[in-house]
Amino acid sequence: MLTAFTRVNLGDVRAVWLRHFEVYLRLWKMELASPLVEPIFMIFAFGWGVGALISSEVGGVSYLTFAGAGVLGFAVLTRAMFEAAYGSYFRMVYQQTFDAILASPVEPESLAFAELAWATSKALIDAVIILAILALAGATRSPLALLTPVPLVAGSFFIAALTLVFTAHVRDIDAYNLWNAVFFSVTFLCGAWFPVEVLPRALQVVSWIIPLTSAVDLTRALLIGRLAARHVWELLYLLLGALLCAEWAMRALRRRMVV
């Protein structure tokens, strides 16, 4: 039973989210540097650099479009991961923001949900910016590209919740070296830079368990306007995974913060 959700107060979630947003507005120039600079160079490197070495299309589309979906999915979900990792950890430990918030009537579940909502919001901001860059680069092939934030939001919430579970158990910031190693290693199996189908069968199974795979596949389908029945199941997987991991994260943060 998803009991932690019954403790969430949406008014408190909104208040905490607005607090984070106000901080963001003060630092918006530095916050926007990453989504503006990184995707441009990734498009140069993968879309035109590696793409120049590939003579044929990949999956019936140019490698620029194929890799563009990978750039978009990878960058957006990575933003959500970092916010739920270092962002939440700094607020919890070094800045003691969590202690100050919980000294008010805000419950740990509302705080945790607000953290997930904020991580997803930052990912959404990046998604809009990167999508615009891809459109300018000619990587979009369908009006359905405007719907790409939908699977990216679901995937970002999924990743953020899973990361917040880890954050709730971390006692030393160096532990994120392990989390980063696992996260960035498995991203090479997620179909961002090459089709999942070229992997051995066992690795394909592993790949489809990783949320980024479904997020990238859905993003690519929307960029080129080519949807299939499997995409419904991929979206359901992301939504269900996000729901279950959010429940886990809220319970974990309560155990961490309430002595």
Task: Lay out the secondary structure.
Layout: H1 10-26, H2 28-50, H3 63-94, H4 97-102, H5 108-137, H6 149-169, H7 176-186, H8 201-209, H9 211-224, H10 230-257
Please summarize what this structure is:
The protein has ten helices and no strands.
Explain what you see.
The protein is mainly alpha-helical and about 260 residues long. The protein has one domain (about 5-25, about 30-255). Helix content is about 75%, strand content about 0%. The chain contains ten helices and no strands. The longest helix has about 30 residues, at about 65-95. The chain is globular and about 60 Å long. The two termini are about 25 Å apart. The model has no long low-confidence stretch (mean pLDDT about 90).
Q: Profile the largest sheet.
A: none
Low-confidence stretches: none
Structural class: mainly alpha
Number of structurally distinct domains: 1
Annotation, overall tally of beta strands: 0
